[in-house]
Amino acid sequence: MTKVAIFGVGLIGGSLALCFKGKPGLTVVGHSNNPKSVEKYLKREVVDHATTSIEEAAAEADFIFLCVPVGNLEEYLHKLSVLPLKPGCVITDVGSTKASVTFCASRLQLPGVHFIGGHPMAGKEKSGVEAASSRLFENAFYVLTPDAGTPKDAYDRLAELLHHTRAHLVKVDPVLHDEIVGAISHLPHIIAVALVNQIARYNESNELYQNLAAGGFRDITRIASSDPVIWRDILINNREVILKLLRDWNDEISGFIGRLEAEDGVGIEREFQKANQFRSGLPERRKGVIHSFYDIYVDVPDHPGIIAQITTLLGSQRVNLSNIQIIESREDVPGVLRLSFREEGQMDKALELLKKDYAVHV
Ligand SMILES: NC(=O)C1=CN([C@@H]2O[C@H](COP(=O)(O)OP(=O)(O)OC[C@H]3O[C@@H](n4cnc5c(N)ncnc54)[C@H](O)[C@@H]3O)[C@@H](O)[C@H]2O)C=CC1
Ligand SMILES: O=C(O)C(=O)Cc1ccc(O)cc1
Predict the structure, then answer these.
(1) Residue 286 forms part of a structural domain
(2) Looking at residue 287, what is its pLDDT?
(3) Pairing of strands 359-361, 294-300
(4) Does 27 or 297 have the greater pLDDT score?
(5) Domain containing 89: what range?
(6) Whether residue 137 sits in one domain with residue 19
(7) Is residue 256 in a domain?
(8) Would you say the CB of residue 28 lies under 6 angstroms from ligand 2?
(9) Is the ipTM of this complex over 0.95?
(10) How many domains does the chain have?
(11) Ligand 2 test: best mutation among 16, 229, 290, 295, most atoms within 8 Å of CB?
């Protein structure tokens, strides 16, 4: 049996556990300091075994996944470095930053075992094992950061195990990883939080802000609901990169202030055109670090039974819905339903079926 030990069975650790559990030849052990969490892991059947003992979880493990907040990764590496680990054991992590943890591991020179940094670039704004899913990483990129000293056999064994996630593995230098992920993930999280807090401040004097802030605002600020501790650690860890990005962000915003002050319509158009052009060159609908499902929006009349009608229609044609959300439903306005699908084909089928009777938007 290949033993996989997971430290921190939350959203990411729990999702990995669900990818591995029940696969032939694999046994999954979860670790938490907290006995209540250990009980929860077992009750939810995300792991085969669970323990509060680091020694027990790590003993004879072939793979160790560190899935705790970024600020605790080094502490776990230090703890593991003094334990008798199985020779050839591969230790990896899932932290959203890669430079500090890989440097720490190489400084520690873990005897007879190999550290390979990892970052599954998919997630969501929810945290905890309750939000875990075996399909979280499907079709997403999964960064690994082996270095020149990483034996090929250790990398290949980890890559083979990670096939169970159905993610696309990609090797990236840890420092470059932090620069790029800082720009495409960390900066957008800060912007979303700052934007929500700015509007919340205005809302204190007039609740119409909140009431009118529907669809678009909700969509672009979803990630502002991410876990505060996880994000505190990520931002502090990658602060040098992020500070530079925020200075560049200030320049972008100052540019807009200047264009507005000068009533520079041509300049404003140019900015929108440039953004549009770059955006249309982005990979189509691949699950990225800021994930999206295949969503469609359906305008629905406000009458009882409408949701059942739609779900029954889709169900009868074997279209798999992954989520359904009423975005707007008040007495005086028609509702909008957001239907999410995991696969593009399913979304296309739903579009065909629904457009006969409803106004549907992508
Ligand atoms: N949330 C996301 O979408 C993504 C997060 N990550 C990274 O994955 C790691 C875990 O994040 P999530 O699973 O989202 O968080 P989570 O909050 O769902 O899970 C964290 C786990 O670590 C445990 N934990 C928390 N503090 C601890 C401490 N001081 N000592 C020991 N265990 C502790 C918790 O009990 C929980 O099991 C983080 O390093 C994060 O940067 C990577 C990709 C996506
Ligand atoms: O919810 C989203 O869209 C995310 O951006 C999730 C996420 C959070 C942290 C990561 O390191 C990777 C992905």
Answers:
(1) no
(2) 67
(3) antiparallel
(4) 27
(5) 2-172
(6) yes
(7) yes
(8) no
(9) yes
(10) 3
(11) 290
Residues 6+ apart with CB under 8 A from 60: 3, 86
Whole-number Å distance between alpha carbons of 47 and 271: 50
User: How far away, in angstroms, is 223 Cα from ligand 2 center?
Assistant: 8
Spacing, Cα 126 to ligand 2 middle (Å): 10
Chain-centre distance of CA 30, in angstroms? Answer: 21
Decide if 234 is inside a domain. Answer: yes
Q: Which is the closest atom of ligand 2 to the Cα of 125?
A: 1
For the CA of 118, the nearest ligand: 1
Residue 311 CB burial class (10 angstroms; 0-12, 13-18, ≥19): middle
Q: Please indicate, yes or no, whether residues 168 and 186 belong to a single structural domain of this protein.
A: no
Higher pLDDT, 358 or 113: 113
**Atom 5 in ligand 2: residue holding the nearest Cα:** 290
| Model confidence pLDDT, tens digit, residues 74-110 | 999 999 999 999 999 999 999 999 999 999 999 998 9
The protein residue whose alpha carbon is closest to atom 4 in ligand 2 is: 290
Q: Do 136 and 218 reside in the same domain of the chain?
A: no
Supply the residue whose CA is at minimum distance from atom 8 of ligand 2: 123
114 pLDDT higher than 70: yes
Residue 222 has pLDDT above 80, yes or no: yes
The CB of 187 under 6 Å from ligand 2? The reply is: no
